[in-house]
Amino acid sequence: MIGFHLLIRRLQTRVPFRSRQIAVCNTGPVAPSMGNGAHLAEDDGMDRVDLPLLLASDLPGAPDARFPLDRIRLQKAIFLLTQRGPARWRRCYTYEPYNWGPYSSTLNSDVGFLVATDQLAVEPFTGSRYGTYKTTQMVDDRVRRAWDECSQDERKFLSHVKHYVTSRSFNTLLREVYAAYPEYASKSLFNG
User: Fold this and answer.
1) Would you state the torsion angle of the CA atoms of residues 10, 168, 56, 58, taken in this order, to the nearest 10 degrees?
2) Contact assessment for residue 89 and residue 79, using Cβ atoms and an 8 Å cutoff
3) What residue numbers bound the domain in which 104 lies?
4) How many domains are contained in the chain?
5) What pairs with residue 103 in β-bridges?
6) What is the pLDDT of residues 61-117, one digit of tens each?
7) How many Cα atoms sit within 13 Å of 5 on the Cβ side?
8) Fewer Cβ in 10 A, N or C end of the chain?
């Protein structure tokens, strides 16, 4: 079980999260081994857009979110999942330094597509001009299948990351991500 404080410690020390389910995300079959020598199935069938859909769903929780899962927090959450999550998530999106830290143009395109096809909605969130991402009924079955395919540790990690990014102000979130990943602050407009 990965506790919230351990997540923060791992974020700060960059110790990778390990999972028993390891596979390549939407890029083809592999058969990596776990530390104990066991081998996994060649392809788990996870599509990279399952990550933003899972985060935007109610399954990982965070009902008491102080801040919305907006475009910047979604970028940072997926970044943390791909950097610290299981190997099968690490190749889903690539990131580069940008105005507000780690940024994936592929994720941005995927989210735009999901919104345009009514799989994701942007709902109002008090105090936010950008709103918060939520999945629509159209993808309930898909999200449930993706959730069910996650290990217990992966589900907990998704929940912790969602809580983490929606419990911090913009300034605090960027400061903490930049402290853990200073190489992504090189093009930042952030001065806080």
Assistant:
1) 90
2) no
3) 4-185
4) 1
5) 96
6) 866 778 999 999 999 999 999 999 999 999 899 999 988 789 999 999 999 999 999
7) 0
8) N
Tell me, what amino acid is at 1?
M
Within-domain flag for 118: yes
Residue 190 lies in a domain: no
Query: Does some domain include residue 192?
Result: no
What does the block give as tokens for 109? 């395109």
Tokens representing residue 136 in the block:
């629509």
CB within 8 A of 16, min separation 6: which ones? 10, 84
User: Running DSSP on this structure, what letter comes out for residue 120?
Assistant: E
Give me the pLDDT at residue 78, please.
Answer: 97
Q: What is the value of pTM for the model shown?
A: 0.76
